[in-house]
From TrEMBL:
Gene Ontology terms: biological process: adenine salvage; AMP salvage; purine ribonucleoside salvage
UniProt-recorded name of the protein: adenine phosphoribosyltransferase
Gene3D superfamilies: 3.40.50.2020
GO molecular function: adenine phosphoribosyltransferase activity
PANTHER family: ADENINE PHOSPHORIBOSYLTRANSFERASE, PHOSPHORIBOSYLTRANSFERASE DOMAIN-CONTAINING PROTEIN
Natural source organism: Phoenix dactylifera
Highest classification ranks of the organism: Eukaryota, Viridiplantae, Streptophyta, Embryophyta, Tracheophyta
Annotated family: Belongs to the purine/pyrimidine phosphoribosyltransferase family.
SUPFAM superfamilies xrefs: PRTase-like (SSF53271)
A cellular component term, taken from the record's GO annotations: cytosol
Subcellular location(s) of the protein: Cytoplasm
Keyword field contains Iron: no
Amino acid sequence: MSACKDREQDPRIEGIASSIRVVPNFPKPGIMFQDITTLLLDPKAFKNTVDLFVERYTGKDITVVAGIEARGFIFGPPIALAIGAKFIPLRKPRKLPGEVISEEYVLEYGTDCLQMHIGAVQPGDRALVVDDLIATGGTLCAAIKLLERAGAEVVECACVIELPELKKRLTPNY
C-alpha cells in the first residue's frame, strides 16, 4: 500500500498483497493487470485495507476524500465515513449532471479528463485523493490540480497498489 510505506512491517500488508490477483497479458499483451476484485472477495483483506488508511488519516483534519473513477469509489467512501469527511467522486467526462469543472491529462496515447461538481470542494478544504493503483501518476496529478483549482489543499494521495517497476523506469538515476 503506497500510503503506508512507514508501516511496511505491519502484518496486514502481506495478507492484502497476497489477496490481489495478477492477470498476465490483460487487457493487452505485456500488461500484468492488478485485479483488486479478489481483494474485495476477502472481507478480512478488504477491511484491513480500509483500516490501514483510516489509521493513517484519522486526526489529520481531512475534510474531503476524493475518489478517482472507478476503483477510488470502492475505497474512498468507507475511508471518508470513518474519518468524518465528505466523499467526492472524480469522474470521467459526461458522467456528472449539473455544472462541473474539468482537468485534462495526457495518457501514453492521447488524453483523458477528470470532472467534479462545482461547489463540491470549498476553499480551505483538506483533501485526500484515493485510487486503487498508482502507475505513472498522471491521473493522480490531474486530480490534485482539479482539487487545488477549487481551493482545496491536497494532503496526500492514497493508493492500494504501487507499480514499483514503473517507478524504477520513470525515476531518473542520479
